[in-house]
Amino acid sequence: MYRKRPRKTLGALAGSMMSLAVRIDHAVLMRCQMKLRDLHRRLTVLRYGLEYDGSEDDIFIVTYPKSGTTWLQMIVYQLTTDGEMNFAHIEDVSPFLEIAMIPRGQKIQDLPATPRVVKSHLSYHEIPKGPGRYIYGVRNGLDVGVSYHYHARKYLPGLGNSTNEFFGRFAAGGVPYGSWFDHVSGWLRNKDHLNVLVVTYEELSADLESAVKRIADFCGITIDPAAMPRILERCSFAFMREHDEKFSFERMRPKPPAAPETAFIRQGKVGGWREELDPRAVSEFQEACDRQLRDFGEDMFRVLSGRGGREGKPASPPPPAGGLSPAGQPGGASHRGA
Ligand code: PPS
């Protein structure tokens, strides 16, 4: 009895020291591993950008996630082809640069299509630069945060169970692709004078036809008037929702079995945040907009901060031709630097 007690105590002590060491090891190693992985990703993207052999015909569709990327992909697809839905997934016609191409070493110059169209969420700083066209899609940050939460609930478990918890992380830049404010500011500032067309989700929603014409002009495409009804119908929320499987994120990342069944083409509304977010989170976010996004013109500022656009209007069916004035147009349309 006398001998057993210290052995037991020593054993327990050793056990807890071991588990503490393992925990510290784990925490430190995990953090180092994540940093190394991020550094590797950055260097790979940088090298890819340096090796990019740009062509004037290339079209980049760039956004912060959940800002209307897929909608723009569909518009460009409809403008540059006969619009038939004979692709398995929209990624087949405008691949995801940093997920599908860069990690596999697939070059933009190897894409068979003309023009070569790619989708990306890269920051202005990271995007491969060339003489091509860059369509930058933006959406008010409040709807972006809410839409991102529905995406995260499905594919990024652990990032915030409630909309407001997730929104807090998003507003602080603690989600994949980081700060929405930095992303938007970098692209709108366009300090290297790339050939950028800024398109807001809000203007697509208010007057799809005018926005489609603006995008076609920018891409040097003349629209056959007979094709316009087809383009508007196929780019409508209702049509795209009907073909949800051709747009969904499942191609990139299989949905975990327990994840909710939310459609990718989910709600398509301007101002849906009003039903979801705490008033306090909204006013803090709008104050951050006041501090960080005033440089880009009053119209753009109003759209980005959720104070413009046609609030609450569902995106489908497409508006009648010439019926509605576009809300929140960026004013500068196509521009090479602010
Ligand atoms: S992703 O995962 O970053 O590529 O997502 P992204 O395509 O940028 O954004 C998805 C949101 O865009 C909405 N969407 C549309 N809204 C209206 N009309 C059409 N045609 C359309 N196509 C896509 C989609 O519903 C997502 O927004 P929420 O608010 O979640 O509905």
Description:
With 338 residues, the chain is of the alpha/beta class. It folds into 2 domains: 14-51; 55-335, 3-Layer(aba) Sandwich (Rossmann fold), CATH 3.40.50. The chain is 44% helix and 7% strand. The protein contains 12 helices and 5 strands. It has helices at 4-51, 69-80, 97-101, 141-155, 163-171, 180-189, 201-206, 208-218, 228-234, 237-242, 279-292, 298-304; strands at 59-63, 117-120, 133-138, 195-200, 334-335. A 5-stranded mixed sheet has the order 2-1-3-4-5, with helices on both faces. Helix 4 (141-155) packs across helix 5. It is globular, with a radius of gyration of 23 Å. The N and C termini lie far apart (82 Å). Residues 312-335 have low confidence and may be disordered. The protein binds 3'-phosphate-adenosine-5'-phosphate sulfate.
The fraction of residues in strands falls at: 5-15%
Total number of strands: 5
What is the 3D shape? Answer: globular
Number of helices: 12
Radius of gyration: 23 Å
The ordered H/E elements are HEHHEEHHHEHHHHHHE
Between the first and last Cα atoms, what is the distance in angstroms?
A: 82 Å
The strand order across the widest sheet is 2-1-3-4-5
Uncertain spans, ≥5 residues at pLDDT below 50?
312-335
Name of the level-1 CATH class of the largest domain:
Alpha Beta
Total count of domains: 2
State the CATH architecture of the largest domain.
3-Layer(aba) Sandwich
In the CATH scheme, what's the topology name of the largest domain? Rossmann fold
Which ligands, by name, code or SMILES, are bound? Answer: 3'-phosphate-adenosine-5'-phosphate sulfate
Mean pLDDT metric: 88
| Helix-strand makeup class | alpha/beta
Fourth CATH level, the homologous superfamily of the largest domain: P-loop containing nucleotide triphosphate hydrolases
